[in-house]
């Protein structure tokens, strides 16, 4: 069962855990990332003290260690392939572009490397399905794999992927656990994972059995420090690569097309079909015919109207860090994962204090002691001022435009405002995302 479903059954007294002898916590790190720590605590409190706990986790962050220490007695730890030795057959690369240009950039890599076969990882189920739908509607051979699919749908997707009938599988981390497919040329990271250990887990799906593979990460201009962290942690060197230009795409497509024609074995029926055309091409010389064929190939390139020729962004340029040309501004807040916050909690908090609709807040990068997020530039006027004097558990909350530093906003008011005075009651611990939303609805109805 999922934690939430099992708790529901326990509350309705449909399930009793007093006689349970074994409790298995699978994908423990992902359950914690999704905010299920309190649910796990409650479930384990219903089980008898003599139960045996088996815990499985691809990574072992401190939060998982805390569960081990709290609930397991003299545990035996079995580790498999945990030594973080980089696979020499994997080339680690990254691209710097804006969030809005990630998919156009991906399309160019798919176009210029038609032989590519890989997995792209996304943060959420919604993002996974949206990207797959958009690319599929444009004619790309891609499909989504995430938790909202039925088991039958997942099996069908994996069958098609293993039979090489699709170029790219777009998946969440949880759904992709256990995927074992050979001969993947690429692993693509639409966003870097919050846990750096997960990067190794993702990228390890390519470069197997002595074959070469590429791990390609799409990052925004402010995430260069995360690449540096990865280099230090897993002891590899990342190569910065450029998004192919439109001219490179044209050249690549025409060359691939020309090679295909040169290496195509002529079918026996071709001469008969040519005779049936009754000289429809007789008024064209060889150059005229080739020019028309080349034009039809160029027409197949998926270049949208208004799409920039150069999708690359510079990293480290202060002029491009704060104000973005895709309609969003980047902000910093001094709340991070160490506070037990999830991305959903943070969006609710920011929306409640600022009055900005949650749909206008996105691209959250949750880090240990802070977080970065985008806000629609049409609604973020004086955003930092709205947080002046706001306190959570005695700590002043700061929200600044991200200029690459950690500068403080000047507080023009000496009055301190607690988050739970005159506003939505916050959870006593940020990690309680489910409870905080229910409290939010109750408090809003009370104000009405």
Q: Would you kindly provide a written description of the structure presented here, covering whatever features stand out?
A:
This protein has 448 residues and is α/β, with parallel strands linked by helices. The protein folds into 4 domains: 3-71, Rossmann fold (3-Layer(aba) Sandwich), CATH 3.40.50.300; 90-243, P-loop containing nucleotide triphosphate hydrolases (Rossmann fold), CATH 3.40.50; 247-299, no CATH class; 322-447, 2-Layer Sandwich (Alpha-Beta Plaits). The protein has 16 helices and 16 strands. Helix 9 links the parallel strand 7 and strand 8 (213-219). The protein is globular, with a radius of gyration of 26 Å. The relative contact order is 0.10.
- For the record, the CATH architecture of the largest domain stands as 3-Layer(aba) Sandwich
Largest sheet: 7 strands, parallel
Question: What is the C-level CATH assignment of the largest domain?
Answer: Alpha Beta
Strand order of the largest sheet: 5-6-4-7-8-3-9
Task: Give the termini distance in whole angstroms.
Answer: 38 Å
Q: How many DSSP E strands?
A: 16
General form: globular
Spans of 5+ residues with little confidence (pLDDT < 50)? 316-325, 404-416, 421-448
What oligomeric state is this?
Answer: single chain
Gyration radius from CA atoms, angstroms: 26 Å
Q: Can you count the helices?
A: 16
Task: Give me the secondary-structure topology.
Blueprint: H1 3-11, E1 22-25, H2 28-33, H3 37-46, E2 52-55, H4 62-71, E3 90-96, H5 102-112, E4 118-122, H6 125-137, E5 142-145, H7 151-162, E6 168-172, H8 173-176, E7 186-189, H9 196-203, E8 213-219, H10 224-234, E9 239-240, H11 246-262, H12 270-276, H13 286-299, H14 318-321, E10 328-333, H15 343-354, E11 361-366, E12 371-376, E13 390-392, E14 395-396, E15 399-401, E16 417-418, H16 433-447
Parallel strand pairs: 1-2, 3-8, 3-9, 4-6, 4-7, 5-6, 7-8, 13-16
Antiparallel strand pairs: 10-12, 10-15, 11-12, 13-14
Helix pairs in contact: 1-3
């Amino acid at each position: 069962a999922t934690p939430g479903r099992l708790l529901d059954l326990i509350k309705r007294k449909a399930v009793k855990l007093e006689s349970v002898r074994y409790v298995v916590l699978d994908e423990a790190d992902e359950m914690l990332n999704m905010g299920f720590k309190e649910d796990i605590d409650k479930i384990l409190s219903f089980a008898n003290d003599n139960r045996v706990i088996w815990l499985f986790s691809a990574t072992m962050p401190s939060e998982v260690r805390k569960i081990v220490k709290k609930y397991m007695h003299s545990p035996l730890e079995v580790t498999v392939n945990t030594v973080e030795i980089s696979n020499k057959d994997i080339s680690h690369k990254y691209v710097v572009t804006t969030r809005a240009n990630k998919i156009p950039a991906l399309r160019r890599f798919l176009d210029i490397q038609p032989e590519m076969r890989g997995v792209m990882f996304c943060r959420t189920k919604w993002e996974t399905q949206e990207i797959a739908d958009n690319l599929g509607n444009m004619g790309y051979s891609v499909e989504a794999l995430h938790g909202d699919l039925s088991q039958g749908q997942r099996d069908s997707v994996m069958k098609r992927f293993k039979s090489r009938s699709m170029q790219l599988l777009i998946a969440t981390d949880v759904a992709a656990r256990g995927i074992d497919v050979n001969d993947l040329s690429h692993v693509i990271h639409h966003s870097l994972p919050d846990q750096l250990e997960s990067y190794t887990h993702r990228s390890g799906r390519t470069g197997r059995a002595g074959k070469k593979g590429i791990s390609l990460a799409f990052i925004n201009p402010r995430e260069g420090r995360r690449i540096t962290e990865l280099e230090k942690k897993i002891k590899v060197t990342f190569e910065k690569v450029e998004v192919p230009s439109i001219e490179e795409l044209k050249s690549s497509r025409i060359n691939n097309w020309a090679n295909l024609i040169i290496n195509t074995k002529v079918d026996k029926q071709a001469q008969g079909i040519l005779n049936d055309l009754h000289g429809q091409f007789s008024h064209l010389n060889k150059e005229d015919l080739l020019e028309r064929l080349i034009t039809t190939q160029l027409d197949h390139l998926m270049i949208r109207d208004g799409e920039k020729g150069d999708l690359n962004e510079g990293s480290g340029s202060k002029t491009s860090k704060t104000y973005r040309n895709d309609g969003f501004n980047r902000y910093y807040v001094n709340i991070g994962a160490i506070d037990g916050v999830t991305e959903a909690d943070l969006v609710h908090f920011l929306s409640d204090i600022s009055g900005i609709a949650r749909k206008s807040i996105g691209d959250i990068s949750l880090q240990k002691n802070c977080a970065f997020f985008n806000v629609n530039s049409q609604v973020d006027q004086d955003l930092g001022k709205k947080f002046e004097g706001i306190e959570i558990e005695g700590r002043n909350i700061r929200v600044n435009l991200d200029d690459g530093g950690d500068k403080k906003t000047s507080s023009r008011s000496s009055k301190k405002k607690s988050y739970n005075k005159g506003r939505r009651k916050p959870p006593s611990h940020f990690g309680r995302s489910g409870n905080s939303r229910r409290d939010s609805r109750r408090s809003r109805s009370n104000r009405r």
